[in-house]
Design brief:
By secondary structure, this protein is α+β, with helices and mostly antiparallel strands. The chain has one helix and ten strands.
Length: 150
């Protein structure tokens, strides 16, 4: 009986050790296969600016974590992508934890056939949208296409 129990404990310890690594590899593989990695901006030649366009970068760290860096020119931050899934229409649903905001935000990204990226939605964990159906909630303006800058 003790021998069987010790095998179960050993299996559980191995599973707990490797499960987070498998999840990280799945997340990294998802963003890589979808084509998200690298830097994106509305105008890659323009200097990053909060009002005129930020430089947004997605990268996989050596430890397997996927990071999301934002460069607004006068301010920069780095945040961890905690999940990413692709739906049947090809929309990449990304969840990012923002320590400075003390919240997780979810956004949906669409990659066009021409290779540009558009934000289709962006919402807080409370369901408050800043972007809905590809338009800014405050202004109703369509979100701009972002180009791959790398």
């Amino acid at each position: 009986m003790m021998r069987c129990l010790s095998r179960w404990i050993a299996a559980a310890v191995l599973w707990m050790t490797f499960a987070p690594l498998a999840q990280a590899e799945t997340l990294a593989a998802t963003v890589e296969q979808w084509g998200l990695l690298g830097s994106w901006a509305v105008d890659c030649a323009a200097r990053p600016d909060r009002d005129k366009g930020a430089l947004l970068t997605y990268e996989i760290r050596k430890d397997g974590r996927v990071m999301y860096r934002r460069n607004f020119g006068d301010a920069k931050d780095e945040n961890e992508v905690v999940s990413a899934t692709v739906n049947a229409e090809g929309l990449l649903n990304v969840m990012v934890y923002f320590p400075s905001l003390q919240q997780t935000r979810e956004f949906g990204l669409l990659l066009s056939k021409q290779g540009s990226l558009r934000a289709i939605y962006n919402r807080s964990e409370r369901g408050e949208y800043t972007i809905r159906d590809g338009k800014y909630v405050k202004t109703g303006a369509q979100t701009p296409a972002q180009q791959h800058c790398d």
